[in-house]
Amino acid sequence: MRHVIALDVGRTGMTAALVGLDGTLLYEARRATGREHGPAAVVESILGFAMELRTHGRTGFGTAAEAAGVAVPGLVDAERGVAVHSAGLGWRNVPLRGLLRHKLGGRIPVALAQDVHARGLAEGRVGAGRGAGRFLFVSLGTAVAGAIGVDDGIESGSGGRAGEIGHVVVRPGGPVCGCGRRGCLEALASAAAIGRAWAAASGAPAADAADCAEAVRAGDATATGVWRAAVDALADGLLTAHTVLDPRTLIIGGPLAETGDLLFVPLRAAVAERLTFQKPPTIVPAALGDAAGRLGVGLLARDLLAAGATARPSDSAQGGPVSASFA
């Protein structure tokens, strides 16, 4: 059966699938990234896993994969096929598309995407944003990141940085963000930020966002205050994005979205309170969960085949003009 490889790389683990050209899920697998052995080991783990998937497809379905898609965290230059900076994995300027093509035989087209962009693409085409036309996908996890959906694609911007809603300043002079500025949305409304705030407020250093949510459900007034502050910050960030982008739908994913009504009921109300001339957006939870990343890169791989993608000079076995570095 004709199929493609879909590989979603996280900081500690990788999930993958073989997907038929009709969208049928044929095979799924998970592997560790080997992050504890250093950034070069992560690249080798990705290449080895991709080769393992290719072998499984040939053995199990009678033919090798015809294309591959891979998603990685951090900053990606999809046009050049380069992982510019992968958050938490310690690499810079890794020509991952070319390395994968070489590993898989040199002829297979490979799509490279930033992980949140891949998830947003899947949500837009086959998930919570299906039929919306214009949407914003926001992932609330350790960080806050976004993907701008237009029709059946994701707007990545001129350098792959479009959708970085987490670094919109919503509280000038507020907590320091990982980017170096103060008051970014990520520093106030990410799961990590809520965990820090609740740990400080509760006096329990090991407390996290899930503990805060549990305390809110139990009626704890202090936890409710921490949660409300994060929801208000998120509403301010979403209002800014909604005003600029005018999406029809706001899709919220990531671990915080899994709290359900605890997040969505006050968030919808907070956004509605802030609207003036803007058309009210539909605010919905993401639908695809953990599968979104590999579904997204599977769609990108199938797109390459539909477009008749061919090899690029920079994807040659010699590795192209970009060399990897590890920090």
Description:
With 327 residues, this protein is of the alpha/beta class. The chain has 2 domains: 3-117 and 290-326, Nucleotidyltransferase, domain 5 (2-Layer Sandwich), CATH 3.30.420; 130-287, ATPase, nucleotide binding domain (Nucleotidyltransferase, domain 5). The chain is 37% helix and 22% strand. It has 9 helices and 14 strands. It has helices spanning 39-61, 96-103, 115-126, 186-189, 191-202, 209-217, 221-245, 261-274, 292-306; strands spanning 3-9, 13-20, 25-32, 68-72, 75-77, 82-86, 91-94, 110-114, 134-140, 144-150, 153-155, 249-253, 282-285, 325-326. The strands form 3 sheets. A 5-stranded mixed sheet has the order 3-2-1-4-8, with helices on both faces. It has a 5-stranded mixed sheet with strand order 11-10-9-12-13, sandwiched between helices. Strand 10 and strand 11 form a beta hairpin. The longest helix has 25 residues, at 221-245. The termini are far apart. Mean pLDDT is 92; it is low at 316-322.
